[in-house]
Design a protein that fits this description.
This protein is of the alpha/beta class. It is built from 12 helices and 8 strands. The chain is globular. It binds sulfopyruvate and magnesium ion. The site of magnesium ion has 5 residues, from helix 3.
């Protein structure tokens, strides 16, 4: 039998994005998936060495200026996810598919499109549509287990690349329900064919996650998003039995704070002198986006002479 984290073809050289992510999840140290929300944040995370990305529903929604309550359509989010996949070639992207936008059929279509645009996998959560971000409010109704299992089965049946992952995320603890229920749900989702389990908690420490993992049979690799527990390191999560750590929203929140601060300073100073030292130089932006390579291509393909000056 193929284990959930081994390569479906039994080989050792991952070739598809899904196979690469499976391979990373099977390592002894947890894989770090950096949250991204557009081509630039994906490119920066890849350049900084993150081996995998999380296309965050919260952050893509925020980047579009809307709330993480299924206000953006799923095709809008997949368009953004596609920009990340293009911007970070070779880096597997796990797409946050929320609840799958309806029933088994919409989830299946979402997953199929995600696979076509080159995602490593999708993650669906066991809430009801429209969902609300897990950190806001208390209205987090859970979907019935058979219904959510049907979504997982439909997506698994519909995928083409056997390496593509369907990650089942349980919001049991977010909904204030007990660990026993999270364990039962985890078992049912594995039985339905899920390739990994995302267990979410919004406690200020990983106490709930640790309580879950102490009793979990380890049937699936487990990923977490430690947004509210700030202190533990990846290694500590690894010792708890975690295979993947998603830094879900830190790039978005960093850019939120930086954009707000620069706007405040420019407006109040009526000039840019105070902010110049705080912002990336255009040279750095052009470097990351490989403007010089384009210049070289122009010379190669059009015969034009390069040498444009780089300001900033
Ligand atoms: C997201 O990034 O959209 C997530 C993770 O679902 S969290 O917002 O931390 O719940
Ligand atoms: Mg989300």
């Amino acid at each position: 039998m193929t284990s959930p984290t081994s390569l479906p073809d039994g080989g050792t050289a991952p070739s598809t994005p899904g196979q690469r992510l499976r391979h990373l999840l099977a390592q002894t140290e947890p894989v770090q998936l950096m949250g991204a929300h557009d081509g630039l944040s994906a490119r920066i995370a890849a350049a900084e060495g993150f081996p995998a990305l999380w296309a965050s529903g919260l952050c893509m929604s925020t980047a579009r200026g809307v709330r993480d309550s299924d206000e953006a359509t799923w095709s809008e989010l997949l368009d953004l996810a596609a920009t990340m996949i293009e911007a970070a070639p070779g880096v597997p992207v796990l797409i946050d598919g929320d609840t799958g936008y309806g029933n088994f059929n919409t989830a299946r279509r979402f997953a199929a499109r995600a696979e076509r645009i080159g995602a490593a996998g999708v993650c669906f959560e066991d809430k009801v549509f429209p969902k609300m971000n897990s950190f806001f409010g208390d209205g987090h109704a859970l979907a019935p287990v058979p219904e959510f299992c049907g979504k997982i089965r439909a997506c698994k049946d519909g995928q083409r690349d056997p390496g593509f992952l369907v990650v089942a995320r349980t919001e049991t603890l977010i909904a204030g329900r007990p660990v026993e229920e999270a364990l039962e749900r985890a078992e049912a989702y594995a039985e339905a064919g899920a390739d990994a389990l995302f267990i979410h908690s919004r406690k200020p420490t990983p106490v709930e996650i640790a309580g879950f993992l102490e009793r979990y049979d380890g049937r699936l690799p487990v990923v977490i998003a430690p947004t509210t527990f700030h202190t533990p390191t990846v290694d500590e999560f690894g010792r708890l039995g975690v295979s993947g750590v998603i830094w879900a929203n830190h790039s978005m929140r960093a850019s939120f704070a930086a954009m707000r601060d620069v706007c405040q300073q420019i407006r109040s100073n009526r000039g840019i002198s105070a902010v110049e030292g705080q912002v990336a130089s255009l040279k750095e932006v052009f470097g990351l986006l490989e403007y010089e390579a384009l210049e070289a291509d122009e010379a190669a393909y059009t015969g034009a002479l390069g040498g444009a000056a780089v300001a900033g």
